[in-house]
Amino acid sequence: MSAEAAPAAKDARSTRAIAEAAKGASRVLAPLDDAARNAALEAMAKAIDAASVELLAANGEDVRLAESGAEGLAPATLARLKLDAAKLKEMVEQVRSVAALPDPLGRVLDATELDEGLNLQKMSVPLGVLAVIFEARPDAVTQIAALAVKSGNAVILKAGKEVEGTAAALVRVLREALVAQGLPEDAVGLVVGRERAQELLGMHGLVDMVIPRGSKALVEYVQANTRIPVLGHSEGVCHIYVDESADEALALRVIEDAKTDYPAACNAVETVLVHRGIAAEFLPKLAERLRAKGVALHGDALVRELLRDVEVEAVDDWHTEYGELAVSLGVVAGLDAAMEHIHAHGSAHTESIITEDAATAERFLREVDAAGVFHNASTRFADGFRYGFGAEVGISTSKFHARGPVGLEGLTTYKYVLRGKGQVAGDYRGPNARAFTHRVLRRQEESR
What we know:
Number of strands: 17
CATH superfamily of the largest domain: Aldehyde Dehydrogenase, Chain A, domain 1
Radius of gyration: 25 Å
Strand content: 15-25%
CATH class of the largest domain: Alpha Beta
Strand order of the largest sheet: 10-9-11-8-7-12-13
Number of helices: 14
Largest sheet: 7 strands, parallel
Helix content: 25-40%
Low-confidence stretches: 1-8
CATH architecture of the largest domain: 3-Layer(aba) Sandwich
CATH topology of the largest domain: Aldehyde Dehydrogenase, Chain A, domain 1
Shape: globular
Structural class: alpha/beta
């Protein structure tokens, strides 16, 4: 199918019909063994690789429209949209890396003997149907679809307008791979258009979780317009605090990576806080390092005074996710002031400390409230693939269900399985009541 033909891949069924089909597909996937799900993933990986010409052509058309101004995309968003041979290869590898992960289903999370012959198990099971709404990320399609299939979930994708052609081509390829494995194509679905998105958010009886991946505005819109549980984060305002005992060379290297490796990512650093005891010596070196990489600097009054020979704009808002080559710089009195600043202006995504003082590092790791807290490491490590999850459906800053990069475990829930021999609740009441043993059995993950 040509790039121009991609819009024809839109599903003509109603949103409810798509959601109902996905629910049916989820019930086919859930009882499959790990080998069958992995075979489907391998078929998906091969299909993506085989369709590379078509996929790149579809993406080229999306990029052409974006660059022509029709979509009005910011440079950071455009960078996310572009797909090339290297990214496509990475997408294939990510699907296979998900297949290589341990089976997340049928694990015995807990086991208790209630009485002799009456045993209770807490077992991992799929969530059911996921709805994932994303912007300008072709790789989101393959990451999410792979994680969904591996975890026995069906998924309905809602692609942003700017990536609709690429998403349609990818989803068609994935659905054909599933059918070739004897699985329902509706395990991976796609809807497009704002109206469809709103309808999808109303499918609370069919969709079990919504995962928004995109701007703060997108996440807040989703949270305000659905009764379905929402998993995600609205912003990635990540900090690095450089302590007075920091290794200078290490700090410069980590900050450069955290800001310039992929500035459009939500785990890129947006604010660097420097202990005032080393600010006069460290900041000029940091400014030189970052400016050489094209990073625009914003700073507080003391930063601008210490860097008076360097172009540094005043910080307009410390709660700013630049998403580009720009960073806020601040000077703080010490660890307590740094943590206070992070809690006041951060987004509970990922925070890092650079220090050689073990006690200071442990206080930071223990007391900073965020999904990820790092010591002497770039914030860019906050990623499902780097954590060994194979891929991720997104990063959650919620404290409920899942937090941080959400991989397979975050796409499962659990149910209680009770096996008995005819016992009834009345046996455990009255003067001759049987007593519960409530004996905790060995707690470990067991294969199904």
